[in-house]
Amino acid sequence: MLISNENLDLVFKGFKTIYTESFDATQSYKDTLAMTVSSNTSEEQYGWLGQFPDLREWVGDRQIKELAAHGFSIKNKKFESTVKVKRDDISDDKVGIYKPMVQEMGRVTKIHPDKQLFSLLSSGFSTTCFDGQNFFDTDHPYARTEMVTESVSNMQAGTESPWFLLDLSKAMKPMIWQEREKYEFQSITDPHDSRVFMTDDYVYGIRARVNCGFGLWQLAFGSKQELTAANYAAARQQMAAFAGDRGQKLGITPTHLVVPATLEARARTLLLSDQIEGSSNIWKGTADLIVTPWLS
């Protein structure tokens, strides 16, 4: 192949097509787990977290809710993945040998948010959220009245492999995926570029500025107890009782059970079997199952 700007552009377009097809074909839970927020700067503030809109009968003047100044923010991080392609391979029409590599770039880019989000979920027992408590904690502050503040738990303490119940049915989510600059497929093929001149290689890569953070703890429950029907039932019951300030019921209904691969068999038995230990399984079909290797 003649090395020219036109031909290099065709190679780039071919690589990008392979990358895009692989990206689109790869499963991701990002849009299920998190609400995506566009970012306009290096860091975004989420002082409004914890405010739940609700309707009341209009008697007298409107009652205006003031947004609590929690000071919670998410800083964007920069990520990249870069590979090199030998100029001689393009000149010798060996572009096809790079197809698996470019396909893999598409796959790992698509699952990158999953890895970040599930890792964040795992860290929820020791990572703070908007109210200053760990995301999974025993004493989230709850203002039952203007004068009375109580503690609410969204976790079960223990030493077993953690599992998680999530309500992912609402516009607001338990996690936030923040995008400053989306994943972009790029290349450096200019013969006047100093690196290309010195190495006789072309460079192709992915670049993004993104990050994730915790959203509403009320939409999630983390357990380090054994995954049993009894503990699963207790977690669902606690989530259903979650209320907003002034006793406003939030209507939380868990929709997904998230487990590591080590708990897949137990989770499938709990959610898919007709019977458990000879008794009718009343929890069959009560949540969708997500099994992921990214829970640390």
From TrEMBL:
This is Mu-like prophage major head subunit gpT family protein. The lineage of its organism: Bacteria, Pseudomonadati, Pseudomonadota, Alphaproteobacteria, Hyphomicrobiales. Pfam families: Mu-like_gpT (PF10124). It comes from the Bacteria. Residues 9-295 form the Bacteriophage Mu GpT domain. It comes from Rhizobium lemnae.
